[in-house]
Design brief:
mainly alpha; Catalytic domain of cyclic nucleotide phosphodiesterase 4b2b; 3',5'-cyclic-AMP phosphodiesterase activity; metal ion binding; metal-binding; Phosphodiesterase
């Protein structure tokens, strides 16, 4: 079996009985033809396979993106959208198109300015821009879901949460900067596959982090590497930068979905006992962790048009992993079998067991603010829509079992249901 698998483009190690190193070019379907493309694409393909970031700055590579953010050139609609960046109906897909794929850089520069962070921390704008370009470019654009647009979406949600009165009244500039940076970088260099995939293929990162929060540890360490490389915070005292790096790690590691119950139990205990003291840095940090967790999985709480796009994207990424697992005769991971795991069923389960419990507690913390009520209303409506689509799928499946085909009118009905 090993010899046959090794023959498939030689992407597996020669060691018997293991899959220690799958070439992640396979994760990009467009590269299967053998066309790697530009140097930029090659850098991205190699990015996940390195332990440390090679120094772009020492090699004298200047970011390709224009420094138009320093001028008054936020032209037209993009600038208008930024004026409404705190609105929950913010369309990050449109914003990404308007900024020519630079949504993360543009958004972060604006938010750092909006929150007064550039002035407070005496940040150099050119250095900030260079750092953000590094972060944005280390996301894999070929990932349907875990890409820079997702990072920008999470950052915009985090901005909304940081403005909730219950939290905003206590936040320091450091808290705000940590929240925005963690949101922007929380999935940096994500390979488009999950932790179990890395473990069962014996990837070096799984060994490096001993199978614990493998991806989250990598996102954190990659972020620290870019922070140091860019020297964005080099002018701050060493103890301050060390504290920032550790807190960023604590925030990013909190996004590990395997720790969901741990954080929910702790949040429930705080809320039931009413013992949160946001004057204390430790409690503020915990609520920043909760806010980031909410921002990371807030897609079901968005408007249906946006929520549906995200649902389709994340399931496409799941299915690609399943196809890869099938190709190498690995057990197909849960939710990754396109033949069995439908988008409506995946989303209904995700909303029921992961999203609803967290956002109900968040609403309890914020005190049923307009934003929290809005999110819960969207969540309930979106879940109802997915249930309706699931029912249609089941009806169609039963109809196919009886007739062997879907009639023209049935197909039209299904298409109409799929259209938001």
């Amino acid at each position: 079996g090993d010899a046959r698998v090794r023959g498939q483009t030689g992407v597996l190690s020669e060691r018997r009985g293991s899959y220690p190193f799958i070439d992640f070019r396979l994760l990009n379907n467009t590269t299967l033809s053998g066309e790697i493309g530009t140097k930029k694409k090659v850098k991205r393909l190699l990015s996940f396979q390195r332990y440390f970031h090679a120094s772009r700055l020492l090699r004298g590579i200047v970011p390709q993106a224009s420094l138009y953010l320093l001028d008054e050139d936020y032209l037209g609609q993009a600038r208008h959208m930024l004026s409404k960046v705190g609105m929950w109906d913010f369309d990050i897909f449109l914003f990404d198109r308007l900024t020519n794929g630079n949504s993360l850089v543009t958004l972060l520069c604006h938010l750092f300015n909006l929150h007064g962070l550039i002035h407070h921390f005496q940040l150099d704008m050119v250095t900030l821009h260079r750092f953000l370009v590094m972060v944005q470019e280390d996301y894999h654009s070929q990932n349907p879901y875990h890409n820079a647009v997702h990072a920008a979406d999470v950052t915009q949600a985090m901005h909304c949460y940081l403005r909730e009165p219950k939290l905003a009244n206590f936040l320091t500039p450091l808290d705000i900067m940590l929240g925005l940076l963690a949101a922007a970088a929380h999935d940096v260099d994500h390979p488009g596959v999950n932790q179990p995939f890395l473990i069962k293929t014996k990837h070096h990162l799984a060994s490096l982090y001993q199978n614990v929060s493998v991806l989250e540890n990598h996102h954190w360490r990659s972020t620290i590497g870019m922070l140091r490389e860019s020297r964005l915070l080099a002018h701050l005292p060493k103890e301050v930068t060390q504290d920032i790096e550790q807190q960023l790690g604590s925030l990013i590691l909190a996004t590990d979905i395997n720790r969901q119950n741990e954080f929910l139990i702790r949040l429930k205990s705080h809320l039931d006992n009413q013992d949160l003291r946001l004057e204390d840095a430790q409690d503020r940090h915990f609520m920043l962790q909760i806010a980031l967790k909410c921002a990371d999985i807030c897609n079901p709480c968005r408007l249906w048009d946006l929520s549906k796009q995200w649902s389709e994207r994340v399931c496409e990424e799941f299915y690609r992993q399943g196809d890869l697992e099938q190709k190498f005769e690995l057990e197909i991971s849960p939710l990754c079998n396109q033949q069995k795991d439908t988008i409506p069923s995946i989303q209904i389960g995700f909303m029921t067991y992961i999203v609803e419990p967290l956002f109900e507690r968040w609403a309890q913390f914020t005190g049923d603010t307009p934003l929290s009520e809005n999110m819960l209303n969207h969540l309930r409506r979106n879940k109802a829509k997915w249930r309706s689509l699931l029912h249609k799928q089941h009806s169609s499946s039963r109809s196919n079992d009886h007739s062997g085909q879907v009639t023209g009118s049935q197909e039209q009905t299904l298409n109409e249901e799929e259209t938001p």
